[in-house]
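User: tokens in, sequence out, please.
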């Protein structure tokens, strides 16, 4: 029994149903996650995969929250503390070795740093769930794709998400326009995987 401390069901509601079928097919050993929050997706991956093999999991987050979190007044210091507790709890129960590499900071800097460390093409699975602002998502997508191995899978969360204030909704304050631009520009190098559209799934075919 894991003593997890989660305060939301984002992962359960938006991803788990598809990931339960997808992850056993991909069986990633090297994972990059942009946007970890309290570690729900990270803990899912540790729980799901470390029964069969060792795992390296890189988690990138500012733990400052996105615009949507600042508006909702999250206490991000407590969120980060719960993340550290939760992934520690998952790792404690892992049957195989798990290395969790926490990269605290802005994703553009952290992903560029991983590239400069020679990690181009290193990751089997890249999960983009950080900033939901289009310019940031585009940057995460382009850099994340360079870090993804040929044959690897990249997932974009909240593909169809937008803010709940119709009068204020700004097309650049949601991921879709950036994910669409990324997919269109890289169409020769990727394949879209069939799944419900709340998340978008792509397989890398070429560098
Ligand atoms: C939706 S949450 C991630 C949820 C998590 N994957 C889960 O399963 O619970 C988004 C996270 O992205 C982080 N974030 C927002 N903008 C960022 C940026 N530019 N660089 C790095 N992290 C960022 C926030 O601090 C927040 O923790």
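Assistant: Sequence out:
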């Amino acid at each position: 029994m894991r003593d997890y401390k989660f305060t939301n069901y984002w992962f359960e509601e938006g991803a788990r149903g598809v990931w339960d079928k997808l992850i056993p097919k991909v069986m990633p050993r090297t994972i990059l996650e942009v946007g970890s929050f309290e570690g729900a997706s990270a803990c899912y991956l540790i729980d799901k995969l470390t029964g069969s093999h060792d795992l390296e999991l890189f988690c990138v987050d500012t733990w400052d929250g996105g615009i949507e979190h600042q508006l909702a007044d999250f206490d991000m210091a407590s969120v980060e503390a719960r993340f550290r507790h939760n992934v520690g709890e998952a790792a404690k129960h892992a049957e195989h070795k798990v290395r969790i590499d926490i990269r605290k900071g802005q994703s553009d800097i952290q992903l560029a740093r991983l590239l400069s460390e020679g990690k181009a093409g290193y990751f089997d699975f890249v999960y983009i769930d950080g900033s939901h602002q289009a310019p940031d998502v585009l940057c995460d997508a382009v850099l994340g794709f360079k870090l993804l191995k040929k044959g690897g899978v990249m997932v974009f969360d909240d593909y169809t998400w937008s803010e709940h204030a119709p009068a204020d909704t700004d097309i650049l304050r949601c991921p879709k326009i950036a994910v669409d631009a990324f997919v269109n520009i890289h169409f020769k190098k990727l394949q879209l995987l069939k799944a419900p559209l709340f998340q978008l799934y792509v397989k890398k075919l070429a560098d």
